[in-house]
Amino acid sequence: MGKKIFSGVQPTGNLHLGNYIGAIKNFVDLQNETGNECIYCVVDLHAITTKQDPKILKANLRETTATFLASGMDPNKSIIFNQSLVPAHSEGSWILGCIARMGWLNRMTQFKEKAGKDKEKASVGLYIYPVLMTADILLYDASHVPVGEDQKQHLELSRDIAQKFNLDFNVPNFLRVPEPLIQKNFSRIMSLKDGSKKMSKSDPSDLSRINLTDTKDEIKNKIKKAKTDKDPLPIDDKNLNQRPEVKNLLGIYSSLSNQSLKDSIDDFRGKNFLNFKEQLADLVVEKIAPISVEIQKLQKENNYIDSILKEGGEKANAIASKKVEEIKKIIGF
Length: 333
Ligand code: AMP
Ligand code: TRP
Prior knowledge:
Strand order of the largest sheet: 1-2-3
Number of strands: 5
Strand content: 5-15%
Order of helices and strands: EHEHHEHHHHEHEHHHHH
Bound molecules: adenosine monophosphate, tryptophan
Largest sheet: 3 strands, parallel
Distance between the termini: 34 Å
Number of helices: 13
């Protein structure tokens, strides 16, 4: 039996190589495995847990969708839609919010990080963000949820909520308890300027990341300027953890060439960086530049993008609204 996959990405614009390797590339691979049913959601309801400019939000929704399509997500194989088109997500979230316990949410580290020092000023939405995420997943009976390491705690919460609902209402296995699918290798792509920081869209230096909209020349220039150290490439992985920038570049190379880190080390053992960086730049250009070109093209086709989302939204709505009706019946509405 194939897997039932659900995952979501926030419409925040400026997606980068870290998002591609950590998330989007896997979404495409899972879609192309036979037997899987995949649902990919641009989570605009999650985005408004922090303040958004309405015009920019709409542009970012379309850009993220364009990035999905440009990367190989296929609306004929996967359901691709944005969350706010399907009311069941909000409805389900309210009901599941009455199952989740304050104590469980109080443990969520992402809220603590995002709310920062002044928790009193964070939105209530930011606090219950993981409950909405739970509704996203459970409404589609997802068996597997591909996410980055940072989302593991939220996935555990969704498992707890599903189990408590099934127990409270004596409906064993009604809500499917989802499994996280967390990439073991290369799940954290680091900044090109500082190997101790994640590659991130919020880094003020554009040289720290490869944006999926970068041109060939921009990609080449950024790899050329990426931080390394004065030693040649390693001959094995022994001291690699002390060389985070080098490890990161080798990780990017391995992931994009679909080979193990060990094989990449063997390919370049003891060589100098000039040669490695040229080959790495060629590989990143080969994989990313076509996506960038396609994104630019799709960005002129708002009607097309909107129609994909609408069609996906209708398919998603048919599934999720049915599940929410069943939930309502169980709880006595
Ligand atoms: P975000 O835009 O941070 O919400 O991330 C969207 C997806 O990309 C999530 O699945 C993240 O785990 C993943 N992601 C974000 N940044 C990185 C990174 N530097 N390396 C690997 N995966 C990442
Ligand atoms: N919280 C996830 C992130 O920031 C995005 C997300 C929302 C999600 N709903 C989801 C991921 C459901 C997986 C399943 O990356």
